[in-house]
Amino acid sequence: xxxxxxxxxxxxxxxxxxxxxxxxxxxxxxxxxxxxxxxxxxxxxxxxxxxxxxxxxxxxxxxxxxxxxxxxxxxxxxxxxxxxxxxxxxxxxxxxxxxxxxxxxxxxxxxxxxxxxxxxxxxxxxxxxxxxxxxxxxxxxxxxxxxxxxxxxxxxxxxxxxxxxxxxxxxxxxxxxxxxxxxxxxxxxxxxxxxxxxxxxxxxxxxxxxxxxxxxxxxxxxxxxxxxxxxxxxxxxxxxxxxxxxxxxxxxxxxxxxxxxxxxxxxxxxxxxxxxxxxxxxxxxxxxxxxxxxxxxxxxxxxxxxxxx
Length: 309
Hints:
The protein is an alpha/beta fold and 309 residues long. The strands form four sheets. Strands 4-3-5-14-6 form a five-stranded mixed sheet. Strands 11-8-12-7-13 form a five-stranded mixed sheet. A two-stranded antiparallel ribbon has the order 1-2. Strand 3, helix 5 and strand 4 form a beta-alpha-beta unit. Helix 1 crosses helix 4 and helix 4 crosses helix 9. It is elongated and about 85 Å long. The mean pLDDT is 89.
């Protein structure tokens, strides 16, 4: 008898409450399943399952054995799947979701390289500024900026931390003057991203103290690229994560203001439905994208302080 088959059968029996359903899951006949269970109990010298005419239930020993063996069995399956994924050629359709800003600035530019390495993978990018349910929407990987997921079956892999900063165009600052303190914000035009947490409340911190400033936008939008375009056009002061603004700042198109103050930071993560049994294409993308972030040194760039302006 195969010891791992015996254990897997027992776990399936415990989960389903039925020997016949467990046997069907593993492609065994009821007679073969019964022989596996008898062999397991004989090997352990303990009764694991009791049955009567109405139901099947675990003994105390069976319950304890189930609690110990289930995670071991899952880890074994995961190890097998990881080994298989490494040796298989990734193929099929990979469904990825991210905000428009992230998709345009950080997903699309690496697609040429990813598809060159994995030519049999077709990529579908689902743009959504609100978080979609990755299980319901059949998403393989989501790029998120939240620390946890409501579904315990979702796994998170951290990519980088990013500051949130205030910026304006040189033209806007030349016309409206510099900002020397938080109080100066009330005299300026603001561009507000409505999907931010508490978008009309800015919680600034510096030297161990926190100051909350209530703000209202001249222009508000649920898309960061709309607001970025308005900022580049000199319309006002924009509050956005550095991952959206970094290239504009380096190029001088936008200038950080009040940079000595910090707003709550965001963590950029990959989220995907469980680490168990990932397909080769999903695993290939997760590893590729994480390596890209490391190579580009994004966290250092996106958490840097640019200096007061």
